[in-house]
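[09:14] KT: can someone run the structure on this one? pasting the chain below
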Amino acid sequence: MILDILESNDRVEMLIVMMLEQYNNHVLTANMVCSELNISNYKLEQHVKGINQVLENNEVKIDKEGILIYGPVTTNRLEKLKQTYIMRSKKFHLLQYILDGGQSMPDFSKKAFLSIPQSYRLRLELASFLKNELNIELNSMELIAPSELALRNSLYDLYFFYFSGFDLPFSNEVREKYLEIKKMVQAVFTKRIPKTQGKNLKLFICIQLTRVLSNKNITSMDRNLIDGLITMEKTDYYFSQAMTNLGLSPDEQVVLIAYIQLNIQKADISVVKSGRVQELIEMFELTIKEQIKKDVYANTDIVEESAMLFANWLIFSNKATSFIEEAQIGYFCEMYPTFHSIAHRFVDVYCRNLLPIQVDNSQLAKYYYDLIFLLIQEISLHEIEPIINICVDFSHGSAYNMFIKRNIENYKDLNINLQESYNGDTDLYLTDIYLPNIKTDKIIWRDPPTVNDWGTFADKVLLIKESKVEKD
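[09:31] RB: done, structure tokens below
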């Protein structure tokens, strides 16, 4: 678990706060927390005290009935808490020391105010975490992975989880060089980079610089992997010279440009459609054809876009950092059943076998969502999902009907067609009057619909949609 790098108490407290967020609108009891985390009531009380010291503008209490009382835990608070806890982690500080080129355990012991035996025990704990969570070996003070690129990808996952949006804990030299590289990137790649992608790029470059400054450069194996998957236009001469002056070799420049063009500015790059990428493309097309009878994607860019996606997976293989709960997958299963079937089958059947790297469930989750969003982007729902015909007919008149219709437009992802009048194709009839002669599904709202009413409406549409999909 990625939380295992935290101090033991902080790890448990982080898990408790994550449960608090999960149960924001539900009852959470002390017994539920103790059972889930295998801790005693006494330990829970102590951890609650610790949480209250760091959880801003909130206080957690356990009442006489054993129910946890607290204000809603927002995602913002959760992210800040992760960053607070990681900066208290001795294992993390040892990892950062090693990344910054530190080679002496006695020197680290002095800086961390630890005894020599404590530091060596800490190194063993860090080694265990790195191996189990990131597939990185710690040999003495050296980080070892199947490749330098694989090592950087794993570090990216770790730092993104704890520092996304926050100040990164890299050296001043790395920060200064990053600013110079950022200026050059902005000059050459003229497309405006969104803030979130800019943060991702900053993390990527800072990890790259940290490794380069410790003489840990991209290997020929990594360069051959990239050259075998993508073809890029010749780099601007002045950009190349500036990058060289900042310490990035031609191979490192290729890695940086590949990241930018596969993740941010998808231009001036083409994917080599052969080998592993071609296999993935063919299997993806086959999976689509199994689920969609007509060739609805013939005029789309789905082949080119999927090729870029697969090349990105093979070069920069990262894990899911959001959209990882089963309930979230359930949402897409309900809203986009055909796309869900395509993505789920492709990931479950082909990604495990066709990718040359060992992938865990978190990576598979990322692949699933990458494919879902690609399908939504490239294929019109109207082409593949059943249309739900809804007739809106209230006695309050046309203005009120228009008010209801405009609210229904917020549910456009349900592939709804609004009818002017009832006919044999109507799937759902919305009204304020009971009409026994209307045999189709009905929803009767005598008053303007509430939030709960709209929830009932969405559930009803999903049931109709599910029934139509099954008939198809």
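[09:33] KT: thanks! The chain has 21 helices and ten strands.
[09:34] RB: yep, looked fine to me
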